[in-house]
Amino acid sequence: MVGVVSLQEALQKAEDGGLDLVEISPQADPPVCKALDYGKYKYEQQKRAAEARKKQKIIHVKELKMRPTIDTHDLETKLKAAHRFLEDGDKVKFTVRFRGREMAFTEQGRAVLNDILEKLGDQIKTELSPKMEGRQMIMIVAPK
Description:
The chain is an alpha+beta fold. The chain is built from 4 helices and 6 strands, in the order αββαβαβαββ.
């Protein structure tokens, strides 16, 4: 805290200390400046930004596709994969695809998705309840 000094005097003091004169608040009257090592400052900013990026958790959406006539064992296999994805913190998108005359029996696909919801129990929250999109019915669940 030096106080109010002329620009030449501030530049001279910064140069004597081997530092840079950095303008902190140009709108203030008089403008506020700080003497610091600008290269070191930029390096520390980059390190903080890299550390923040490293701590972020990226959430992926994993998709499991099936048909409305899926057998019980096949469904259990899909559920094991869904459990593994949910434990890793990823969202899971269940897709039931309808082909040909199966479009007349979309309630079978809804029953499959409701069965999945029942078996996964309270370890999930439903982000998108079962709904039709063209020739497929989708549902998205996320871990609690």
